[in-house]
Q: What sequence folds into this?
C-alpha cells in the first residue's frame, strides 16, 4: 500500500531489520569465559522521506547512538539493510560510504 506521503516526497533512507551486536570476551582470573553477544541494536526498521524528521528516544544505554552510528557507517551493522536514496550501504566499503556521505551534504 502506498501512502499519500510516499507519492509526494521521495524516500531518502530505509533501514530494515538493522542489528548491531558486539562480541564481549570476559576474563575470569586465569581463563577466558565464552564470548557473549551484546545486542546494542536488535531488529530496527524505519523509513524516512524527504522533508521528514525522525526522533529516536530511549533510556541511557539502549542503543540510540549506536543506531545513528550504524546508519551513517561509523559502526558496521551485523545484519540488516541500510538504503540511502535507493543505494544499499550495509556492508559497503569505506569509499562507498564516503561517496554516500558526500551526496547527503
A:
Amino acid at each position: 500500500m502506498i501512502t499519500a506521503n510516499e507519492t509526494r516526497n521521495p524516500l531518502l533512507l530505509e533501514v530494515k531489520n538493522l542489528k548491531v551486536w558486539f562480541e564481549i570476551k570476559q576474563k575470569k582470573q586465569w581463563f577466558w569465559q565464552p564470548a557473549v553477544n551484546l545486542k546494542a541494536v536488535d531488529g530496527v526498521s524505519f523509513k524516512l522521506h524527504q522533508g521528514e524528521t525522525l526522533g529516536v528516544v530511549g533510556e541511557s544505554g539502549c542503543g540510540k547512538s549506536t543506531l545513528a552510528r550504524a546508519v551513517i557507517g561509523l559502526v558496521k551493522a551485523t545484519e540488516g539493510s541500510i538504503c540511502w536514496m535507493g543505494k544499499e550501504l550495509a556492508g559497503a566499503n569505506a569509499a562507498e560510504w564516503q561517496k554516500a556521505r558526500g551526496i547527503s551534504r
